[in-house]
Amino acid sequence: MNKLQRLLQNKILILTICAAGIGGTFQYGYNLSIINAPATYIQMFMNTTWLERMGAPLESNVILLLWSFTVSAYPLGGLTGAVVAGPMAIRLGRKMSLLLNNVFVIVAAALSGFSRMAKSFEMIMLSRFFAGVNAGVSMNIQPMYLAESAPKKLRGAVALTSASFTALGLVLGQVVGLRELLGGEESWPFLLASNVVPALIQLTALPWLPESPRYLLIDRGDKESCISALQKLRGTSDLSAELEEMMAEQAAVKGQRAKNPWELFQNPALRWQLASIVVLSSAMQLCGNDSMYSYAAYVFEEAGIPQDKIPYVVIGTGSCELITSVTCNMIIDCAGRRPLLLGGYIFMAGWALVFMVALSQQTQISWMPYLSVACIFAYILSFGIGPAGVTGVLPTEVFDQMSRPAAYMICGSLLWFNLFLVGTAFPFVVKSLAHFCYIPFLVVCVCTALYVWFFLPETKGKSFLEISEEFRKRNFKTKTRAGFYKGPEEIKTTTL
Fold first, then answer.
1. CA–CA gap between residue 139 and residue 162 (Å, rounded)
2. What's the pLDDT band for 410 if we cut at 50, 70, 90?
3. DSSP code of 481?
4. Angle at CA 267, nearest 5°, toward 265 and 269?
């Protein structure tokens, strides 16, 4: 409760969280969900447009191919955004990068909004690409910006709001996509263009809020601006201890430049940090949570829910992720990162097993469809309580200021590539394994839980330097075990 009270006192910090989130990771969840409702109408539009151009309709397989290109454009744009996010964060700063990132979504909104008027379905594909670029940038920079702006004791909770805004965007996208709102045949261009609203809100609010104090001090060497930003973010509290910690971090990286992604792979001192984010970022998409959403409509229909009511029930699945991400936000700095990740993946593995059994017995046992529905909600709840949010916090905590942007580039690239991989491969997995299609996801969850249990240290309540020192010991320990006698080599590389 004391932490909550302190958070409420920091009004500027709360405004920073909201302004960064509404035009940041909110857009990822929102743009991910708004494309689902008008899918049939957009495919009809493609066919009608082609008929007007060529005088002949498209074959069904060609329409499906064009729709696949449209859907795939989003993760392709996200991968592009993840790659450019690192250089943007270094050269422009965290806040300015988020502000300029809105240009991509404004272009996307214009393209999709005028696509029907221009009779061009290609504009929708291009729109989805630019929306993906926006999401790719924000997914990398927002958690970095917030974690660097937060006090140490609230760092996890503040950075984890990125996941809460993602879930909020997902739910609102499902709500706005209902037929009664913007999901109808006449209004779908407005639905796809509605992502401009969060962008305009961020462009209005974020310029008045401070830049990341760590970026100002360590990257730019501007101590006065850093102190000014800290005073705005912390109110009237004593800043000496926090400033001293930041100056120690500045001294630790003095003379270094921001690293490139390939340099992280070449640096033995970052071996375990890099392995951790590669494993956890890959598991984020390979655990099958997004595939559970695609399976939801089939399971709900089998459970006897009327076809016209299924969209309303699907909103419940998104609400589950929102509720659990907010819950995780409140307990992360008490429970720690490891227990939430470990518990999340263990529960997901258990529910995946039950889900497959329930699917295989749906026609034999009358109550099995209801168990399948329960498994969907339980799986999403388990994902939201740990992996959904904690994964995005860790790159900020386990890498120093010079390595952090490159680390987020690697994380983001893996996230978007695996999103594309799962989206492409899952239909074939379902076709091959039928009711046992969650076996690959079960294996991923078990392996990730084992990695967290054996190799990932706890970062709760530790300064960035303390975390770096803990990983340095692990990397040094691994290095010394590689051979028997390293004395002369160590003496050669010692600097006095």
1. 8
2. very high
3. T
4. 120
Close Cβ partners of 177 (under 8 Å, ≥ 6 residues apart): 33, 34, 36, 37, 38, 183, 191, 311
Q: Which residues 6+ apart lie within 8 Å of 69 measured at CB?
A: 125
Q: Rounded distance, CA 181 to CA 172, Å?
A: 11
Tens-place pLDDT, residues 167-184:
999 999 999 998 888 888
SS3 category, 437: coil
Query: Helix H segments across 336-403?
Result: 337-360, 368-385, 387-398
For 45-61, b/e burial (b = at least 16 CB within 10 A) is bbbebbeeeeeeebeee
- Among 362-366, 384-388, 482-486, the minimum mean pLDDT is found in 482-486
Rounded distance, CA 94 to CA 86, Å? 10
What is the identity of the amino acid at 496? L
What element of type H or E holds 17?
Answer: helix 11-22
- Report whether 105 contacts 160 (CB < 8 A): no
State the number of CA atoms in the 13 A half-sphere of 345 facing the CB.
29
**HEC per residue, 190-254:** HHHHCCHHHHHHHHHHHHHCCCCHHHHHHHCCCHHHHHHHHHHHHCCCCCHHHHHHHHHHHHHCC
| Burial bucket for residue 307 (CB in 10 Å: 0-12, 13-18, 19+) | exposed
366 burial level (CB within 10 Å; 0-12, 13-18, 19+):
exposed
pLDDT-based confidence at 348, cuts 50/70/90?
A: very high
Cα–Cα distance between 489 and 314 in angstroms, integer? 61
Residues 394 and 349 sit within 8 Å (Cβ to Cβ): no
- Cα of 420 vs its chain's centroid, Å: 14
Amino acid letter for position 19: A
Check whether 351 has a pLDDT greater than 70: yes
Radius of gyration of the chain (CA): 24
DSSP 178: S
Q: Is the pLDDT at 427 greater than 80, yes or no?
A: no
Listed in sequence order, the DSSP H helices in 434-463 are 439-455
**Residue 308: which residues within 8 A CB-CB, separation 6 or more?**
none
Q: 221 pLDDT exceeds 50?
A: yes
In whole angstroms, give the CA distance from residue 402 to residue 139.
Answer: 19
Is pLDDT at 401 greater than 90 in this prediction?
no
For residues 83 and 409, is the Cβ–Cβ distance under 8 A?
yes
Give the single-character DSSP code of 55.
S
| Percent of the chain topping pLDDT 70 | 93
pLDDT at 64: 82
The conformation of residue 312, written as its DSSP 8-state character, comes to H
The DSSP symbol for 150 reads S
